[in-house]
Amino acid sequence: MDDIIVTERFIEAKDFDDYNIILDSPLPMVKGTIGWRGPRFGLEEIDFLDSISSTGNLSLRARCSTGVWIRFSTNSEVRLKGQFLGFARPKRAFDLRVDGEYVELQESTTQEEFNISLGTCGEFHTYELLMPHVAEVEIQGIEVTPGATFRSVEPIKRLIWIACGDSITQGMNADRPKDIYVQIVADRLGLLSRNYGVGGARIWPELWKNGINGDAHLISMLIGVNDHNCGDNIDEFKEKYSTFLSLALNRHPQVPIICITPIWRKGEDALNIKGLFLEDYRDVIRSLVNEMANPMVQVVEGKELLPEDPELLSDGVHPNNQGFRVMADNLEPYLQKAIKGIYL
User: Fold this and answer.
1) What's the pTM?
2) What residues does 299 pair with on adjacent strands?
3) How far apart are CA 88 and CA 58, in angstroms?
């Protein structure tokens, strides 16, 4: 696409494509109540989650913009305008990369609307804005400098990592979206991550079947804590986990699949209502992968990713920022090895 010189002061989100502004999300931009958003999940998945939870908490977490980017190159002053619609956690942080490097960006302090300055006019820079990971947002558009130019952004040519899981993968309790273990490892290895983590999720193949039908070069699953907490039947857990793996392998038979057992948590030695330990659910994952004997599927022990150290947890269950960095440090070599033998 050719360079575009803007003549107006405000570009609506629905017109981003006309100005070389890319909203990088798993699904196309959709119209909301006051703006536009880039969803991770479609209506089918949202309806499924609403059928499970009458409170709407699950679908709200699925509607959060975890891992969604806005990318553009311009010499214009830019302010992003939009509105928060709901929060899985009371965090409003965006993260910004300018010419590939993260820069300081103030968290929005307003309860609903946001109007965030991303750059000043003058020289050309490439901006990449990472959306809030635990907030549902709608983007109205961006204020620009009339007469400034938007250049085309180079297409992203990165290996795609589909990261499935629960609140740990979504990054619940991380301070900023760049602090999630998924984003940390993706940044280090140059991967384009598709974060399909949903706080409260259990092993529900219905939630991820459409996501894993998309392009993928690496797939991971970190699940099991909520299944244990809710006392899910162990045989049903195995059956649904097997269904997920079958869906992934049928669509991507030559793509590495990393099955991460639940990370350590405080009080994990307690029995659930079925008289089962969290370790019993880990054993199911291990035995299932062992029975499959498929070289594309491997187990990574969650307790190796996060040591038994309460200082690494924010609330006894979810890692804090330090915990997520430790997880990323320990997971990175596994993912690097998985993709090295196939793509690199």
Assistant:
1) 0.96
2) 259
3) 9
